[in-house]
Design a protein that fits this description.
about 210 residues; two-stranded antiparallel ribbon; 2 domains; mainly alpha; rod-shaped; about 60% helix; single chain
Amino acid sequence: DGITTNLFTSTGDLALLNGLNQVRTLPTIGLPPVANPAIVIPPQPDYVFGGIGRSMSNMFRSDAPNYSVGVTISFPIRNRTAKANLAGAEIQQNQLETQTRSQEQTVIVEVRNAVQAVETTRQVVLTSRRARENAEIQLEGERKLYEAGRSTTFLLIERENALTRARNIEIRAETNYNKAVADLQRVTSTTLQAHNIVVASPANDK
């Protein structure tokens, strides 16, 4: 009878097999382990025993085959270059998204501030307009009193100066309002009509 044994028997071969199987069974590779198959070594025929004479005669025998046993093991390894390229692309994508969000936030803040400036200067225009209208009414009343002999030149001049100051304040307020509207158009990079944005004009508020 032959002898039954395993293909890998030496300590070095077994260590190599165990290390190989540890790599193959990793979750990132997912290959089945390599088995250590059992083999049967048949009994040696008579012609393998003998001295040099037997060896010389075996050279001319056709029933004295040579045996060789080998194992070829292969398993795929992840393409590290492709993995590195993918990681680099993901990093660049994340950086681009972060930069885009930052730019969007900057634009939103600038537009919000510009809209607030338009509304604030608009209210100032309305207030200064009412002050100028009141100054006109007071001057007209002072003139009537002066013509009736119930006022003085000093008071009449004071009313005229007050009206002049009110008009100057109104002009500055309108200038600031126009600048605020221009800034809003600048931060939106287009005209307000192109975005269907309607800014109420103080000229429409009486």
